[in-house]
Amino acid sequence: MDAWLRELFPASVAGVALVAVGGLGRRECAPHADLDLVLLHAGVPGMDELAASLWYPIWDARLGLDHSVRTLPEALSVAHDDVKVALGLLDARHIAGDADLTASLAAAAADQWRRTAIRQLPALRSVTTARWEAHGELAFLLEGDLKEAAGGLRDVGVLRGIARSGVTDALRPAVRAAHLRLLDTRDALHIAVGRRVDRLVAQERFAVAGLLGLDDGDALLRRVASDARTVANALDDAWRAADRVRVIRRRGGDGKPLRRPVARDVVEQDGELVLARTAIGARPDPSLSLRVAAAAATTRLPISRATCEWLAAYCPPLPSPWPASALAALITLLGSGAGLVPAWETCDRYGLVDGWLPEWARMRSLPQHNPVHRFTLDRHLVQAAAEATGFTREVDRPDLLLLAAFLHDVGKGLPGDHSTAGAPVAAAVAARIGLPAADVALIEKLVRLHLLLPEVATRRDLSDPKTIAAVASAVGDATTLDLLHGLARADARATGPAAWSDWKGRLIDTLVRLTHTALDTGVLPALPTPDPALVEGPLPAVHLDGDRVAVAAADRRGLLAAVAGCLALHRLDVRGADVSTVEDRALVEFVTSPRYGTSPDPIALANDLRRAVAGDVSVTQRLRGRGGRSAGSGAPPRVVWHRDAATDAVVLELRAADSPALLYRVASALDEAGASVRAARISTLGGDVVDAFYLVGIGAGEAAVEAAVLAAAAS
């Protein structure tokens, strides 16, 4: 690239230099990266024509170009006012023309940066934080931007700028190695796609992994996550170093650091936690690293780099079972709320967590491919414990709630159902950290049942006494029920916004209330009575009330499908459905939510519903010809039968990719197969659904009904 640009540059022009910045300036050219060039001159006339003679051939070659034409004072002035330009000039490298002019720019830009860095760094930090908010954390994203996300290549440039300011050595060997691997990943991505792209999307992972010599896409994601964490943590250290410099300059006087005890063996010094001198001189307590982490999490202060390195080198391993001081420190750490995540990340970076929990290495940076999840497995577990602190006052054993939240998904990545596989792993951890046998058994039970409440609440008929009896039998007592309730909410919050909704929360609350009644009194709920507004009055009747859609009509086959089709036309997703018959009228009630966030016109919806239930097929005919356009995985749909889950029905559970009008197609198939639907529970998990239909009377037999449902789901 240098040679080609030199050919474009006219040899006869004096007082002008072509300067590379950015990737070309650093000699880090990606296969399809843009060129960042500065045409530097000493007040030479005719620069517009010279610039055009350079830029147009570059554009003709279909290369991206970021360019500027400036004198030396102009370049320094812009750098003084724009921190991003100031960083860019630190990479200035001579390409062609007046080499002395380029050398003057590089020297002056570096000198100006060193003199003004302390003033400029807050602005750089603000710009960096805004970028993180826009692009997220690369370590925890399934499809992260290798350049712009937190921990990406752009942050290495920030680290380079901080290092050039003299504040701290921000580019340690581990950071340099992570930087090179991220550059390799971006290069492989450009080659695989054939154009400039920095977002590592799912469909390119396999090709990129192959070019990098990795086994598969998961291995690639784990390597990217590890490198991004290294960069992000180094940048946290660098910001703190800059803050300390400003504090020291403001302090004046003798310049001695201010020290303040914050916990046993832990002292705050210049905004960081360090070990007390007595802790360093004596043989360390095995629980010391956990106690330091707990102090960091509760005070929201970072642990100094030197302290982390000392703990990793000299803190002895914990015995099995742990001493009481270590268990108490772990509970304090997990119960610290928002302070938990940064403290845990710091300890994990220096290898302390592996000493506490050998199982952590298997879970570190393990991707979770369900789009509902926003974090890797290890971060999800830590986040769940942090979220559980919001429910500790609602349970009898807050310590066990924190531990269960932290351990609930330890079975992921192991063969089989992760709840079943994770229960013995969680029990082994609970025993090793020093819990008594009864608490170990309860932790095992909580991990095994951690999905019970959300799955039953969203997939079963809560008005059926058999549903409540089954949950009460599985849970066994009110203490366990309350712990599972808190765990379900913490898990959902840590998963991401798509994992929770007011509708789901109301269902789980209802299930918990009914189960509490059954456990306390032995009384099971009675089957609900129909809404009087639907039982009386002329037909058809339509009632719209927020997310509730209720319809009463003359009893006939195909009513459920007609209503479901009408709702699909108005872009309403169905969350639950109840069907009942009173004398000669059928009652259908739905819980809905707008598919795209905007509620439909209620008058138009009511009119279409009346026409549809009256038998006007023109309403649902508008759905024909619309493809399913499944949003979920490529796995085929599946049917699971639950023959003992209901009092008066057999439950057909459909697991399939979500798509518009899916319920309409399935309900139509059930109707054509002669199966009557008493109730339905519709649960959406990212791009997939788990729909449960309570069938009363299966005219064509289970095999024929299953075949019809699978065909409808796949269409």
TrEMBL record:
InterPro entries: ACT-like_dom_sf (IPR045865), ACT_dom (IPR002912), HD_domain (IPR006674), NT_sf (IPR043519), UTase/UR (IPR010043). It comes from the Bacteria. One of its GO terms (biological process) is regulation of nitrogen utilization. PROSITE patterns: ACT (PS51671), HD (PS51831). Uridylyltransferase (UTase) activity is inhibited by glutamine, while glutamine activates uridylyl-removing (UR) activity. Residues 1-261 are annotated as: Uridylyltransferase. Its cofactor is Mg(2+). One of its GO terms (molecular function) is phosphoric diester hydrolase activity. It holds the Pfam family HD. Residues 548-624, 651-715 form the ACT domain. Residues 377-484 form the HD domain. Signal peptide: none annotated. Modifies, by uridylylation and deuridylylation, the PII regulatory proteins (GlnB and homologs), in response to the nitrogen status of the cell that GlnD senses through the glutamine level. Under low glutamine levels, catalyzes the conversion of the PII proteins and UTP to PII-UMP and PPi, while under higher glutamine levels, GlnD hydrolyzes PII-UMP to PII and UMP (deuridylylation). Thus, controls uridylylation state and activity of the PII proteins, and plays an important role in the regulation of nitrogen metabolism. Has four distinct domains: an N-terminal nucleotidyltransferase (NT) domain responsible for UTase activity, a central HD domain that encodes UR activity, and two C-terminal ACT domains that seem to have a role in glutamine sensing. PANTHER family: BIFUNCTIONAL URIDYLYLTRANSFERASE/URIDYLYL-REMOVING ENZYME, BIFUNCTIONAL URIDYLYLTRANSFERASE_URIDYLYL-REMOVING ENZYME. Belongs to the GlnD family. This is Bifunctional uridylyltransferase/uridylyl-removing enzyme. It comes from Asanoa hainanensis.
